[in-house]
Write a structure and sequence with these properties.
Length: 338
């Protein structure tokens, strides 16, 4: 019966192949010819050194490449295993996101398109739950060539992210500090929110009060709350923070600032009932832009990072294997609502 070692040795007859290429292609050939199947254990580094006479670094480099392509996975203290019989793929990416809303969808769609058909992406969701976040990270580590993760603001996050190989890790969306140099393509919340509110201050002053909806303990970035409080103090704006919008409570002379789309729709519905015109009788400011906000009620004023650009920049960093540390600019998009 043909062995993995024989499949690797067969390639010694190809002069153009380096020992690294012999090793990688030999393992691939063994999988394609069903000599070894998905889930099966591969020889240890020491066994391969003994059988093939290759340098330790050559074998380790070969295994690293096979892991990055999603063909092989490494399990702590157990060794290397066949992870996937699809040997045509060049790279396997783990994408760990909050959830699938319209903004994360923009990110994913552009990431997927930019990476192209030969890169495999597995998508996971943590829903802002630290226990689920930890479970997902333990589940995916050692099985992918690149890990693209949207972190949770939590004391355990830094430690959990350090379980991943730092050279294969890209943080996206929110930014959480970690030890040493690491890759990220993120948005910034506090100073950008303050700047946007300052730009809108003259218009906000034409109304009686600025109301911000925030549920304590929610996933809303705390930096936005800090910016709101600092802005209203610095600019002496009459303001309130309340937990949620109560249906039927819309009032003339108020500016409503919300991160929750469902509250916008409730406010607009009540405006129709009370015959109030957004941008005239009340103001509305929303975080994160999307197509529907261009159209509804003559247009909702938003401020947002470009999630499409974020997806493209992460993909480019993956494909070019380049270092990336980038904050995507936050842009105010003024429409009729404010």
């Amino acid at each position: 019966m043909t062995t993995i070692f024989e499949k690797i040795r067969e390639l010694e007859t190809i002069p153009s192949y380096s020992k690294h290429e012999q090793f990688v292609q030999g393992i691939i050939n063994a999988i394609e010819e069903r000599i070894i199947a998905q889930g099966a254990a591969l020889p240890s580094i020491n066994v391969l050194i003994k059988e093939l006479g290759f340098a330790r670094e050559t074998i380790m480099k070969g295994y690293r490449e096979l892991i990055s392509r999603g063909i092989v996975e490494s399990k702590n203290r157990q060794g290397y295993f066949v992870a996937n019989e699809d040997t045509e793929q060049t790279l396997k990416v783990a994408l760990l996101m909050y959830l699938i809303d319209s903004f994360q969808e923009q990110f994913y769609r552009n990431l997927r398109h930019e990476l192209g058909p030969n890169v495999h992406i597995d998508v996971f969701f943590h829903h802002g739950n630290i226990t689920m976040f930890e479970t997902m990270l333990h589940m995916i580590k050692g099985k992918y060539g690149v890990y693209v993760v949207s972190p949770i603001p939590h004391p355990k996050t830094k430690h959990l992210l350090e379980l991943l190989p730092i050279n294969k890790f890209i943080m996206f969306d929110r930014y959480e500090p970690m030890k040493g140099e690491f890759n990220y393509v993120s948005q910034e919340f506090e100073q950008s929110t303050y700047n946007i509110l300052a730009e809108l201050a003259e218009t906000i002053r034409t109304f009686d009060e600025l109301i911000f909806f925030h549920v304590p303990g929610s996933l809303d970035p705390v930096e936005i709350i800090k910016a709101f409080k600092r802005f209203t103090k610095d600019f002496k704006i009459n303001s309130r923070i309340i937990n949620e919008y109560e249906p039927g409570s819309v009032e003339k002379g108020k500016v409503y600032f919300t991160l929750d789309n469902s509250e916008i729709w409730k406010i607009l519905k009540d405006c129709e009932v009370k015959q109030l015109q957004p941008g005239v009788d009340i103001g509305i400011l929303s975080h994160n832009d999307e197509v529907v906000k261009e159209i509804i009620a003559g247009g909702i004023t938003t401020y947002s990072a470009d999630f499409s650009l974020m997806g493209r920049r992460v993909a480019q960093a993956i494909l070019k294997k380049e270092k990336v540390q980038e904050i995507i600019p936050t842009v105010l998009i003024r429409r009729k609502s404010l």
